[in-house]
Automatic annotation (TrEMBL):
Keyword DNA-binding: yes
Naturally occurring in which organism (per UniProt): Dysgonomonas alginatilytica
Span of domain Tyr recombinase: 96-273
UniProt-listed Pfam families: Phage_int_SAM_5, Phage_integrase
PANTHER family, per the entry: PHAGE INTEGRASE-RELATED, PROPHAGE INTEGRASE INTD-RELATED
UniProt keyword terms in alphabetical order: DNA recombination, DNA-binding
Example GO BP: DNA integration
Similarity annotation: Belongs to the 'phage' integrase family.
Record keyword DNA-binding present: yes
Full protein name: Site-specific recombinase XerD
GO molecular function annotations of the record: DNA binding
Length: 282
């Protein structure tokens, strides 16, 4: 039996928020929408290799799992060109240590004087994400109407939810400048690295990505995703309230928020000290 349904339609019916997976498929397929007949064994193998060059292994693992779920669902209804897709699209989860900016480093970015319009726009957008926890896709739509009673209220493009997050004089100034031009991620990441280097964000760090340990100056590893990690980590360190951070970031559950927090404070000494005050009744 064959169904008259395109792969992209089937995918969006189940994963309507994960359009970016289809975007990667289209980009790999010479900017052409992928359909069932395109998903040959060679195509899938080379697409996985492409993904591993474009995103982290854990992100690629998630994207492939989504594709695998759709192929599995329609495997009996559609004559798929590759029957062993499950093996190809099953990737291992690897350990990750990401980086983030501290409040002092965020202040260095605030103090930095951009040298041109591109730097000005990207610096502002990155800072807004660091200070509000917003996704890039939401930051570029901000304007003064989003500032309501000292907080920022916006409609999240990805989740289609209304989110309330914190504001401050710096964020209000950045929003009012309306630097909303959208740059390609490759350009954004290249420029934000350059800005961080010029701003003096160069402490030695160790990260783990794609299962490999790398060390170097922090600015070399900064990308657009680290802005939200910076928000999650700094706010968790300040409040120790993961439920609050989850709400401010517009997440549905704290499991998602946990993946953004790069450093957890170790309070075992305080716990031991408190318990040490207990004593047995004589």
């Amino acid at each position: 039996m064959n169904l008259n349904i395109k792969f992209t339609t089937a995918f969006q019916k189940k994963y309507f928020r994960e359009r970016y997976v289809l975007d990667h498929l289209k980009s790999y397929n010479n900017n052409t929408e992928v359909d069932w007949n395109d998903l040959t064994k060679l195509f899938l193998i080379e697409f996985v290799e492409y993904l591993l060059d474009e995103v982290s292994q854990n992100s690629a693992r998630t994207y492939c799992a989504h594709i695998k779920a759709i192929l599995n669902k329609y495997s009996e209804a559609i004559n798929l060109p590759c029957q062993d897709f499950a093996d190809i699209l099953t990737l291992k989860k690897v350990g990750v240590i990401n980086t983030y900016l501290t409040l002092d480093e965020i202040q260095l970015l605030i103090n930095y004087k951009p040298e041109n319009e591109i730097e000005h726009t990207i610096r502002n957008q990155f800072l807004l994400s660091c200070l509000t926890g917003m996704r890039y896709s939401d930051v570029i739509h901000l304007n003064s109407t989003n500032i309501v009673n000292s907080e920022i209220i916006y409609f999240a493009q990805k989740t289609k939810n209304v989110v309330h997050t914190i504001s401050c004089p710096v964020t209000e100034q950045l929003i009012n400048e309306e630097m909303n031009f959208k740059y390609a991620q490759k350009t954004f990441n290249k420029v934000i690295k350059q800005i961080c280097e010029k701003a003096g964000i160069n402490s030695e760090v160790k990260i783990v990505r794609a299962g490999k340990v790398e060390t170097g100056a922090k600015y070399k590893f900064i990308s657009s995703h680290d802005a939200r990690r910076s928000f999650a980590t700094t706010n968790y360190e300040i409040t120790l309230d993961i439920v609050l951070v989850c709400s401010l970031m517009g997440h549905k559950d704290i499991k998602t928020t946990q993946t953004y927090i790069c450093r957890y404070q170790n309070n075992t000494k305080e716990v031991k000290s408190t318990y040490g005050k207990l004593h047995l009744a004589v």
